[in-house]
Structures are given as structure tokens and as C-alpha cells.
Automatic annotation (TrEMBL):
It is found in: Cytoplasm, Cytosol. One of its GO terms (cellular component) is cytosol. GO terms for biological process: bacterial-type flagellum assembly; bacterial-type flagellum-dependent cell motility. Keywords: Bacterial flagellum biogenesis, Cell projection, Chaperone, Cilium, Cytoplasm, Flagellum. InterPro entries: FliS, FliS_sf. Belongs to the FliS family. This is Flagellar secretion chaperone FliS. Pfam families: FliS. PANTHER family: FLAGELLAR SECRETION CHAPERONE FLIS. The keyword Chaperone applies.
Amino acid sequence: MAVNNPYQAYRQQQVFTLSQEKLVLMLYDGALRFCRLGVSCLEKKDYAGVNNNLLRAQDIIKELMITLNHDAGEIASNLHRLYDFMLWHLIQANLKKDAKMINDVIDILQHLRDAWEEAARIYRTHDYRTRTGMDRQG
């Protein structure tokens, strides 16, 4: 895929070189942004804008779902159920034009985002590879 716009190429390269932790944070931030824009559009009675923004938020949540590591066990299963709930909630919010339902999803996304950011911070400040013996050569 060729990118002719230098800014677009730079942004694309940034995404390719981000850590997994930062990519997940970006996904959460994007979903939050589109949900908030959906609420804003709803307040203005811009229903096409509501639809567009909620669909984009749904796409991001789907991406979070498909990138889950199900080998992680119960936490991955619980996250999958939360993502599924948020998708259903956003679909219903879009159909009913219900700001409260969108705000419910925003609350969940914000809590997940904050928890992920904290977990990434803790991971970065500890050397788990040394403690688990992952740095030993076989």
C-alpha cells in the first residue's frame, strides 16, 4: 500500500512502531472520542453524525475483541463479554438515539482505558523478564 502524503506516511510509521500497550490505549482513546462525538451530535440532532461516530466506535471495539489473547484465560473471556455488551449497547443507543446508553459505554471504556494505562505503567516500571527467567538463554 503506497502512501503519497508525507504526513500520512509519517503517521502510519508511528502506528507500526508503537508498543502493543500504546496501541491498545489509542484504540480506547479513539472509541471514547467517537462515543463522545456521538453524544455531541445527538445533542445537535445530527443523526447522521450520531450514526457515523457510533459505527466508528463499534469498529474499534470489534478490533479490541479480535485482538484479545484468549490464552490469557478468564480475563480475556470477561473482556470479550464486556466488548460484546458495549457493541450491543451502542447499536441500541444508535437505534433509540439514547445518550444515556452511549454514556454508559463511555463509562465502561474509560474504566478499561484507565486500568490498561495503569497496568502498562506497572509493567514498564518492573523487569518481569528477569523475574520470570524469560531472559535466560536455553
